[in-house]
Write a structure and sequence with these properties.
Layout lengths: L4 H19 L9 E4 L5 E3 H7 L10 E3 L5 H9 L3 H5 L8
Antiparallel strand pairs: 1-2, 1-3
Bound molecules: zinc ion.
Zinc ion (ZN) binds next to loops.
């Protein structure tokens, strides 16, 4: 019996798709830069994904950047994260 095979395949493909989507590693952080929980240095999210840990101290615990000092601001700008930096700056009223 081959009747229903196409539907079965389609259903299977859909289930696979859903499963693949479900098992996709969830992005814990959406920011382009994070702060290492151990050495408190700023770490690029792309770098973190590549290395799997802080490239400076090897620590794996990261937290969101909530504040940064002037030196770190310059570092962020040198990483071309102007829009990220802008999120922390007061928006001028129109
Ligand atoms: Zn570190």
């Amino acid at each position: 019996m081959t009747k229903g095979t196409r539907q079965d395949k389609a259903a299977m493909r859909q289930a696979e798709h859903i499963e693949a989507h479900r098992t996709e590693p969830e992005e814990a952080f959406s920011d382009p830069v994070l702060r290492c929980d151990s050495c408190t240095r700023l770490v690029k999210a792309t770098q973190l994904r590549k290395v799997g840990a802080c490239p400076l101290c090897g620590n794996k615990r990261m937290r969101n950047v909530t504040v940064f000092d002037d030196a770190e601001r310059k570092q962020l700008l040198s990483w071309d994260m102007r829009s990220f930096v802008a999120e922390f700056e007061p928006q001028p009223d129109e």
